Amino acid sequence: MDKNRYCVIMAGGIGSRFWPISRRTMPKQFLDILGMGKSFIRMTYERLRPVVADENFFVVTNAAYKSLVLEQLPELRPEQVLCEPVGRNTAPCIAFAAFHISAVNPQAEMIVTPSDHLILNEKEFVRSVEQAFDFVHANSVLMTIGVTPNRPDTGFGYIQQSKQPDPTGHIDRVKTFTEKPNLEMAKVFLASGEFLWNAGIFLWRASDILAALERYLPDTYGMFKTIEADFGTRREQTSIDNVYAGCRPISIDFGVMEKADNVYVRISDFGWSDIGTWGSLYQYSDKNDNGNVLSDNVMTYDTRDCIVKLPEGRLAVVEGLAGYIVVESADGVLMICRREHEQNIKMFIDNVQYAKGDKFI
C-alpha cells in the first residue's frame, strides 16, 4: 500500500436534518440510521481501508466528538483525530488537515471525504478512488468525484464536465460547478449528458491544495500559515484553538474549486447518496407493499408512503397516514411531519430550542 496516501474524514457536523434522532450529543455520522449494524463513520472508514493504511487516516471533528470517534474507530490513535474548536465549514477543515499532514509527510496525497454518505457498490468506489489517486500522483491537479445522475435531483450540486475525457473515459476536466438547481434546470442537466452529481469527495497532493488555498483563499491560508511551525507538535491544538475563531466560514467548493483552473473529475457510478434528509433515507430504504419504511415495532393500517422509525422497546400503531415522517428519539422526542414539509425541521428545532431550551436539541 502506498505510504504517501492519506485519508481525511470530515465528521464535525451535527446532522440537524435528521432531528430528533441526530442531536448535538450524538450526531448523524455516529448513528446507524440505515439499520446496517454500523454507523456512517464506521462504513466510511471501512470502505477506504483497501486504499489507505490505518496509520494514514485522520478524522477532523469537533472536540466534543473525539471520544466518539475513537470509540467507533478503535484502530486510530488519539493523535489521528484532529479537533476543531468550532465548525467553520469545509475550507478551514481541509486547510487544518492539509497543514497537519504536510508536517508529517510533505509528499502526501490526500482523499477528503464526508463521513455520512451511502455508497452501495464499494468495489466500484475503490476502483474510482484508485484511479483518481493515480491521476493526482501523475499531475498537479485538484480532483473531485462526480457521480453519473439517474434522475433530475434538486438536492445535489452538479459538476459540468468538458466532455473531453482522458483515454480511459473516466477522467475529465471540470467546466463549471452549479449549486442545487430547481427541477426544470435539473431536467436540462440530465438531458444534456454533461452534468454529474457532486459527491463532495476530493483528492489532491497536500502541496497542491495548500498552493490553491494560498492563491484563492489567502485569508484562510494565512491563518494556518502563521502557526505552521506548531503542526505535529504538542503546541498544535492550542494554536488551532487560537486561530480557528478568526477563520471565515466558507466551503472548499465556493472558496477554491469553483475558481481554480486545474480541477478534474473522476466520472463514477457506484450507487451514491449523501442521505442528507429523512426523505433521502426513505428513497434508499426497502419498502413494503404499501410503500412504507418501518421499524419492526410498528403496526400500520390504511397507511402508505410513510417512514416510521422508533427506538427499541417502543410500539406504535399507525392508522390512516399517507406520506408522513414519524420519528421518535430514544429519550422520547417525537416528530410527526409530512414528507414534503421536511424542510421545516430547521424551524422545529429553533422553536423547540426557544420553548424548551437545549435539552432536546
Assign a percent range to the helix content: 25-40%
CATH level-4 homologous superfamily of the largest domain: Spore Coat Polysaccharide Biosynthesis Protein SpsA, Chain A
Order of helices and strands: EHEHEHEEHEEEHEHHHHEEHEEEEEEH
pLDDT averaged over residues: 95
Tally of separate domains: 2
State the helix count.
11
CATH architecture title of the largest domain: Alpha-Beta Complex
Shape: globular
In short:
The chain is built from 11 helices and 17 strands. The protein is an alpha/beta fold.
Question: What do you see in this structure?
Answer:
It is built from 11 helices and 17 strands. By secondary structure, it is of the alpha/beta class. β16 and β17 form a beta hairpin. The chain is globular. The relative contact order is 0.14. The mean pLDDT is 95.
Topology record:
Blueprint: E1 5-10, H1 40-48, E2 57-62, H2 66-72, E3 81-84, H3 90-104, E4 109-114, E5 118-119, H4 122-138, E6 142-147, E7 158-161, E8 171-178, H5 183-192, E9 195-205, H6 206-216, H7 218-225, H8 236-244, H9 252-257, E10 263-268, E11 272-273, H10 278-284, E12 293-294, E13 298-301, E14 307-309, E15 316-319, E16 324-328, E17 334-338, H11 345-356
Helix pairs in contact: 3-6, 3-7, 6-7
